[in-house]
Amino acid sequence: MTSSADHDAWVPDRLLPGHLARTLPGRRPTPVGPTARAVAAGGAAPVLTLVRPRDAPPDPRGVVVHLHGYNDYYFATHLADAFAAAGWAFLALDARRAGRSLRPGDVPHYQGDLREQASDLTQAVAVARRTWPGRPVVVHGHSTGGLVTALWAHAHRARGGPDAVVLDSPFLSFERSWVRPLQDGVLRPLARRAPLRVVASAPSRYAERLAARWDFDASLKRPEGVPVRAGWLAAVRAGQVRVARGLQIGVPVLVARAARSGADVPDGPDLDGADTVLDVATIAALAPRLGADVRQVVVEGGVHDLALSLDAPRAAYLTAVTAFLATLTG
C-alpha cells in the first residue's frame, strides 16, 4: 500500500511508458579536499530521479531498489516485470549526473567521492520504505553501482540499511577492467590538483553491442563511452581498497557474475557471452570479503550486465535473483 503523499509526488516518466518518476534534490556530502569541494559546487545543484512502474503488486512481498552503473541509467523494464511476477515492487534510481538526473553543466557520471551516490541511495531506500511501509527492501546494484551499494550497506549495517543486497557484476577491482588505473602515488595527487582531468577515454564496444539488441537512449548510455576523470577514478579506487580490506555487511548478499571474461573489441567473439568489462575471477575472489553471508551465482553465457544478457542466461540470472528473494520472505 502506498501513502497518498508519496503518490501525489510522482509524475509520468518522460522516457518509459507506464512508469512514474520523481525528482529529488541531492544532498551534498562533504567532498574531500578544497579542489573536490569546488568541483562539487561548480555544476548544477545535484538531483536524483526515482522511477517505478505505474502498476505494482498491490500487496508486495518487498521492494527492490535498483542502482545502475557507470555510463548507464534505468531502462530495463523487464527487471521490474520479473520482480513483479515474483510479488515484489520495484524502484529504480538514476543517481546524480546520470540518466534522467543529468543537468546542463554536469560532468556525466562524475563523483569525486562515492558517498555522493551513496547519499542518493539513502534517499531512494527511504522513499521505498515510506511507499511500501513494513516491507523488506533489497538493493540491486550493478557494476559501479554494485560497489557503491556494498560500501553503503556496510556503512548502514547498524541502522537504515537494506534487508538484503544483490550485486550484478560489481566493480570491486580494477584488475583486467575496462579502465587502466594510474598508480596510487600518481592518481591521488592528480585527483586533488585536477579532479576533472581526463585520464582515459575510449568507445564501449559492449554498449555498442547492447544498442543493437536493446532500446535505450544513446545519449544516456553512450556507445562512444564516457571519459574517465581523475577524481572519479580516485574515488572508485578508494572504495575498492576498502572492499579489499573487508566489509561487514550484516544482511544476506548475493553476488552474481558471468562465467568468464572476454575482450571488449569490435565484433569480438565474447561480446554476446562473456563479461567484456570486468574480470570475473577477481569478483569471485573478493566477494567473500563483503560480509558473513555471501552467496555467489555464476551465469553461463552472461555479459557484464547479467540482466541484459541473451535470453537463456538472462532468464537464468533473473531466476536466481527471484529465488534468492524468496528465501528472504519464506
UniProtKB/TrEMBL annotation:
InterPro entries: AB_hydrolase_fold, Hydrolase_4, MAG_DAG_Lipase
Keywords of the record: Hydrolase
UniProt-listed SUPFAM superfamilies: alpha/beta-Hydrolases
The organism's place on the tree of life at top rank: Bacteria
GO molecular function, one term: hydrolase activity
Keyword Hydrolase carried by entry: yes
Residue intervals of the Serine aminopeptidase S33 domain: 59-306
Name used for this protein in its record: Alpha/beta hydrolase
Organism, as annotated: Cellulomonas phragmiteti
